[in-house]
Amino acid sequence: MDGRAWSVLFVLCGAIFMEGIDVAMLNVALPSIRAELGLSTGMLSGVVSAYVLGYGGFVLVGGRAADLLGRRRMFLFWLTVFLVFSGLGGLATEGWMLLLARFVTGVAAAFMAPAGLSLVTTNFPDGPLRTRALGVYAGTAAGGFSLGLVAGGLLAAIDWRWVFFAPVLLSAVILAVAIPVLKDQAPQARRAGGFDLPGAFTLTAAMLLLAYGVVRLEHGSAGLGATLGVFAAGLVMLAAFVVIERRSANPLVRLGILRSGPLVRANLGGLLFLGSFAGFQFLITLYLQELRGWSPLQTGLAMLVVGVDTILAPTLTTWLVNRFGNGRVLIGGTTAAVLAYALFLPVAPDWTYAAMLPTMLLLGVAFSLGYGPFTMAATEGVDEPEHGLASGLLYSSMQFGTALGISAVTAAVAVSGSGLAAIRGALVVPVAAALLAAVITAFGLVRRGQPAFANGGA
Question: Rounded mean pLDDT of 77-99?
Answer without folding.
Answer: 92
